[in-house]
Amino acid sequence: MSVSDSARDFWDRISPRERRLVIVAAVALPLILALWLGLSIRDGLVDIEARNEKTRKALRVLDGMRADGVPQQKGDDVVAMMGTDPLSLPTYLDTAAKAAGFTLKTTSPHPAQTRNGFVTNSVSVTLDDLSIDQLKTFLSTVETNSKVVMVTHIDLRRDFRDKAKLDVNLEISTYSKEPPAKGEGGGSAAGSATKKGG
Fold it and tell me: Which candidate in 4, 92, 100, 123 could, as Cys together with 138 as Cys, close a disulfide (CB 3.0–4.6 Å)?
């Protein structure tokens, strides 16, 4: 016996009242499934928005901390104290990580960029499973311990395994003056010697 024959036989055997119930169930079931699916999607979107709002809140806190905690320095003051030897960023960042209570695993250096008499040395850093407090301490230490170090890029997201933790990608840069050309330094020294001899 085929499925259609079985369905027809079942339909013939049930009472008119049972037939009405079958028709109602056939109509209601897809509606219920569609409603359930819609509510599930809406709940998922609400959860995603809630996580995004928490992330935005964390970023606002970090921005506020950066604005309040980093003293504003005049550009001339920073340039005046800037040397020609670049700061060792891996060592500097390792110290900041220890202050925040975690160990810095690796840094990826970028090629130095020279422009308008200044040299920019940058590194990329990936930090996993940090609390917001650890990240705040790390960023505060990075930007307050030296006037020539700055966080130039931040990509922040919550750890999918632990919503209280953050995974962060950073780019951190340090600035120094471009060293004078060898000829310029030697010429100045020679000129000074000539003046003294005269």
Answer: 100
Q: Is 149 exposed, middle or buried (0-12, 13-18, 19+ CB in 10 A)?
A: buried
- Contact predicate 171/123, CB 8 Å: yes
In a domain, 189, yes or no: no
pLDDT, one tens digit per residue, over 28-42 is 888 888 888 877 787
What CATH number corresponds to the domain at position 129? 3.30.70.60
Q: Are residues 136 and 84 in the same domain?
A: yes
Q: pLDDT by residue (tens digit) across 144-192?
A: 898 888 888 888 888 667 777 888 899 999 998 888 877 655 444 444 4
> Contact, 102 vs 134, CB < 8 A?
yes
Structure-derived torsion over alpha carbons of residues 69, 75, 80, 81, reported in degrees to the nearest 10: 20
